[in-house]
Amino acid sequence: MKHQLELRHLKYFVAVAEDLHFRKAAERLFISQPGLSRQIKQMENDLGVKLFERHNRKVELTKAGSYLKTEIIQYLKDLDRIFNQTKLLNDGIGGDLKFGYVGSAMQKIIPNLLLKFRNENPNAQFSLKELDNQKQIESLLSHDMDIGFVRLERVPRGLEIKPVLKENFCLVLPINHPINVTNFKSIKQFKNDAFILFDSKYSASYFEKVMQIFDDNGFTPIIAHNTIHASSIYKLVENNFGISIVPKSLQTQNVKGVKFIELTKISQKTVLSVVWNRKNRNPILEKFLTHLD
Question: Does the record's keyword annotation contain Transcription (predicted)?
């Protein structure tokens, strides 16, 4: 290269690549449009690569430019994490771990793990966000998150998955439903009831496993509602819009108006797994993973 590229050149490039408009990108960067155009042209000359196709009224990325955009965005994210980790260590903080989780993981699994980990790493800090399975996978692949708790059978290449909890399913019924633990025999007793289930978008593999329960009992359920939130399921069940099937870890005494029947005699179990990106070099992640055993 004729000239040494600097960090600002990368940020200039990303701004133009995202806006595909030199004036808008220049305004966002608080520099002049001619100055930005010169910097991008210089970058292309230094690389010996054409990054943009310039037309009278629009700008388009070349194939090389599109590739570079993806890689530089990831590089800048990595750099931000490195600087953030450096600052945390300087401030006496052991590290920052970003969690994603499905709601059922927050009942016992995550709190217990965090308490145990914090006892041994009191200077570590955590940030937690409830996300559906797919959003967690996307965040892990883009390195926006360090670790996720999901209900999935498999994950994309590059991610590692490890089961942490295998559990029974539970029926969720309105408190006044005539069937209870004493007179429950099988799911067949509910073939005429409406069901409220987790949406297949929550997890296609989880949804398929629930449907297998109905297949084994010889009927197709009447699905009245789909949702991705347990709280919505409980509210709908309480108000007699239907009944539901949820993981046992979502069984709680704090929900009024519903009752639970654990399904101990069916073959289907649901698995909660932890998933992370193999390329994640966050030092605190490796420490945390040792506590999963």
Answer: yes
